[in-house]
UniProtKB/TrEMBL annotation:
The keyword Nuclease does not apply. The keyword Cell cycle does not apply. This is Uncharacterized protein. PANTHER family: SOLUTE CARRIER FAMILY 25. Belongs to the mitochondrial carrier (TC 2.A.29) family. It comes from the Eukaryota. Gene3D superfamilies: Mitochondrial carrier domain. Keywords: Membrane, Mitochondrion, Mitochondrion inner membrane, Repeat, Transmembrane, Transmembrane helix, Transport. The lineage of its organism: Eukaryota, Metazoa, Spiralia, Lophotrochozoa, Annelida. InterPro entries: GDC-like, MCP, MCP_dom_sf, MCP_transmembrane. GO terms for cellular component: mitochondrial inner membrane. It comes from Paralvinella palmiformis.
């Protein structure tokens, strides 16, 4: 998996409960073999934790984990970590959406003025608008992505027991991400509408869904779908490529027996995720504007026309409005996710290797 949607989990628990090293590693295993195997599990764990963005290349679980059911414990721990971290960083996420949709040279809306607007318009509680649906969608998205990824991997392997190459993982992860996004995309639209709603506009998620369906039709639940799907390719591709490159550079500069530590992998994951976000952010911004149904006067609601309008009125910088709060939430999201994952992992009985 890539570091995209979720970073660190821990060096923990990629073995079954009650298993010994003799079971995990045959008697003829060398120290190098054990270290490499252990390092591979660290890399797998490093991507479970939430960065505030949805992971596009899902978790790679071992055959043992799939057979024993240990995989679901990691997914549950990761989902819990994601729910808590998203809730804690929700004000920054809502600010990002606000700046993407309403920020412009004319409005002069910034980070401080954006927070002031939200507090004045709806009070402290308004900072968490849209967070409920953002947390709820973690479970179905993770489950669909995981199932799709496993099926696609089987097709790629063609019955041969082997590890997928980087390009195959990218293709499998992108396809799985596209499938899960297609299924849960209406929830993405609801999240954006709820984040942008004014006090009293909607009584809740169901009321929002009903009003959109009644006044705009079912098609509105897929507004912005095209740039969203197109964004998967640069995000997942660059994220995976940068992550693997940085990891390879580290390995070439150190002993072959020395696998990257958890904090090295965290740094690699954060850097790769940042690069992926930079590459795909313009598409994410256009997607959000389309979801919010914000169309310039006399303008078209097509993706291409919206790109042209933004560049003509605001210049290239306009394609990156809202990216600052997006980056500001990375550090707290990773830290909170790590702590929560560790606690939930222990509660579920996933032991350290």
């Amino acid at each position: 998996m890539t570091a995209t949607g979720g970073l660190i989990a821990t060096v923990a628990g990629r073995s079954d409960l009650g298993r010994t090293l003799d079971v995990l590693y045959p008697p003829n295993s060398t120290l190098v073999t054990i270290l490499r195997s252990f390092g591979a599990r660290v890399q797998q764990e490093v991507q479970i934790i939430d960065l505030g963005e949805d992971a596009l290349v899902p978790d790679d679980f071992t055959e043992t984990e799939l057979q024993t059911g240990m995989w679901w414990r990691h997914l549950v721990a990761g989902a819990a970590a994601g729910a808590v971290s998203r809730t804690c960083t929700a004000p920054l996420d809502r600010l990002k959406v606000l700046l993407q949709v309403h920020g412009s040279r004319i409005s002069n809306l910034g980070i401080v003025s954006g927070f002031q607007y939200m507090l004045k318009e709806g009070g402290i509680k308004s900072l968490w608008r849209g967070n409920g649906i953002n947390v709820i969608k973690i479970a179905p998205e993770s489950a669909i992505k995981f199932m799709a990824y496993e099926q696609i991997k089987r097709v790629f392997k063609s019955g041969i027991n082997r590890e997928l190459g980087i390009s195959e993982r990218f293709a499998a992860g992108s396809l799985a991400g596209a499938i899960s996004q297609t299924v849960i995309y209406p929830m993405e639209v609801l999240k954006t509408r709820l984040a942008l709603r004014k006090t009293g506009q909607y009584s809740g998620v169901w009321d929002c869904a009903c009003k959109i369906c009644r006044h705009e039709g079912v098609k509105s639940f897929y507004r912005g779908y095209v740039p969203n799907i197109l964004g998967i390719i640069p995000y997942a591709g660059i994220d995976l490529a940068v992550y693997e490159t940085l990891k390879r550079v580290y390995i070439t500069k150190h002993s072959p027996c020395e696998e990257p530590g958890i904090f090295v992998l965290l740094a690699c994951g954060t850097t790769s995720s940042t690069c992926g976000q930079l590459a795909s952010y313009p598409l994410a911004l256009v997607r959000t504007k389309l979801q919010a149904k914000v169309i310039p006067k006399g303008g078209s609601d097509s993706m291409i026309d919206l790109f042209k309008t933004i560049i003509e009125t605001e210049g290239p910088r306009g394609l990156y409005r809202g990216i600052t709060p997006n980056f500001l939430k990375v550090a707290p999201a990773v830290s909170i996710s790590y702590v929560v994952y560790e606690h939930v992992r222990k509660l579920l009985g996933v032991e350290m290797s």
